[in-house]
Amino acid sequence: MRFEIIGKNVSVTPAMREQIEKKLSTLDKYLLIDPNTIARVVARVYPKGQKVEVTIPTKVGILRTEVVDDDFYAAVDRAIDKLEDQIRRQKTRLSRRHKENLAVAFAQEDEQNEEQQEVLVKTKAITADEMDLDDAILQMELSNHDFYIYTDEETGKISVAYRRNDGKYGLIEVDNSK
């Protein structure tokens, strides 16, 4: 695994870089991590703590976590623990369902600045990959988002799986017929 370590409001020291690389290298033991995978780590310093954000795109989904702690090294340790839990849950789900590959939605970000309105608009273009509802919920949980857009295998319709406030899941199916 390769590393992209960025410091916001802090310069990343060699000791910080070494600790991050050492801890993230322990994730290589999992089959989901490819040697060409780039782990993106953002370290931020706030007046009330230090935040570590880790994003790792894998073959079957995106592993992502954010941790805030008073101590930078404790935040890194907690982030690694969260990533290991995500990987364990993901592997359990995959082995339970006997699936080798899951479809992944590749998001492309494009930010536009409209000078007339002085509004910053963030846009994303996605590919609504074909999968079933269970796989869409898995991808939503792995990406740590509240919703996931995909194409339903059975109906061929674009659908949105989402997490409700009561912790349950919901489904929206898009009907293009008028």
TrEMBL record:
InterPro entries: HPF/YfiA_ribosome-assoc, HPF_long/plastid, RHF-like, RHF/RaiA, Ribosom_S30AE_C, Ribosom_S30AE_C_sf. Residues 116-171 form the Sigma 54 modulation/S30EA ribosomal protein C-terminal domain. GO terms for molecular function: ribosomal small subunit binding. Residues 73-100 form a coiled coil. It is found in: Cytoplasm. SUPFAM superfamilies: Ribosome binding protein Y (YfiA homologue). Required for dimerization of active 70S ribosomes into 100S ribosomes in stationary phase; 100S ribosomes are translationally inactive and sometimes present during exponential growth. This is Ribosome hibernation promoting factor. It comes from Grylomicrobium aquisgranensis.
